[in-house]
Amino acid sequence: MTAHQSTFFDGGQRLQMTESIEMTIQSLQAYGPDHPHWGIAWSGGKDSSATLTMICWLIDTGKIKRPETLTVFYADTRQELPPLAIAAEQIMDELRERGIRIEVVTASMDKRFMVYILGRGVPPPNNNTLRWCTRQIKIDPMEQALRDRVDQLNGQILMITGVRQGESAIRDRRIEMSCSKDGAECGQGWYQQVLPNAKGLRGRLATLAPLLHWRVCHVWEWLKHWAPQAEFGDWSTAIIADAYGGDEAEEINARTGCIGCPLAAEDNALDTILTNPQWAYLAPLKGIKPLWRELREPKHRIKKAGLERLKDGSIAKNPQRMGPLTLEARAMGLDRILGIQTACNEAADEQRRPRISLINAEEESRIRALIAAGTWPDGWEGDEPAADTVMPIVYQNGAVQPLLFSAEDAA
Ligand code: SF4
């Protein structure tokens, strides 16, 4: 009997899976034929990988009509967990064998996560509303790739995303953009909601989330047991489910995102990967998340000395706000990341396991050049005081609360 009859997945659940696939087919049959050109926004994470492989299987088996063109946009952030990056490479080979067009979408050098933080000095993101990273390393490059593609095709694209919110979302008719909700895959909600309104894409892009109603256990089941079988396409997706421990943890809501994402409460995915002896050599990656936290501390940053006038002459909301990383902090961060990379790769060589790339030679040299040139983010000169300097407090109305005692008093 087939391998997809796992212990937790039989009877009613199997029926639900079949129903879920049926709903996916119906949504693609309803919306697909109106669009000759399809794109798939794929990050290598669990939801978008399930979406990608499911759609290819449905097309290959004639369950849905093949579009005139299909382009897979692989969002390569350079921040993916190594097992997922490796799986993505294998899946790309499998897509190429089928003659499917793939575009690898990566942010320009200065906008990449590591270069932006360690070269330009922008602090690591720390909350969901103000995070710059998703837009910069996922959305903006995807927007550009799509603009280029719709121009080439001179038509409209149906962009298929891996947004998956389960049954509650169907009830709510609401798609959360936050990647911290319900184990969603970072970026997919943004692709769904932000891209259709992006400059140059309005009216030229429709989106569809054909796995919207899937439960997370169905995603694991598909990736681990169905998709790897010849009858479902022979895909290299099991490694993705294994990376999250999805097979054992039926309802685990593992969030998919960057290595050491500063916004995730825990490094759950990385922790699971490290319990697998094959990937245990990646343990030094555990040092990345604490580094981002440390770099946000005042001792590594500069701050505005007092009131800040904006370009339009108005006063900025938060006087004495903390800003970019000092040049020393950036150099320290670069050393730490390179040290982590070296430690992983030495262990990889010893154990004949795949090497990893956190910062490649080109990125390292760009980071060093930006630090050497004393580059600061817009609105900063670098001559501002260190953020841990004790100073009189300035309020937005200009009032100043002096220090209770001065340095001389203390002396
Ligand atoms: S996973 Fe985290 S670090 Fe990566 S883009 Fe999303 S929020 Fe930013």
UniProtKB/TrEMBL annotation:
Enumerate the spans annotated as Phosphoadenosine phosphosulphate reductase domain. Answer: 40-224
Lineage top rank: taxon: Bacteria
Task: Show the InterPro entries listed in the entry.
Answer: PAPS_reduct_dom, Rossmann-like_a/b/a_fold, Sulfate_adenylyltrnsfr_sub2
Protein name (Swiss-Prot/TrEMBL)? Phosphoadenosine phosphosulfate reductase family protein
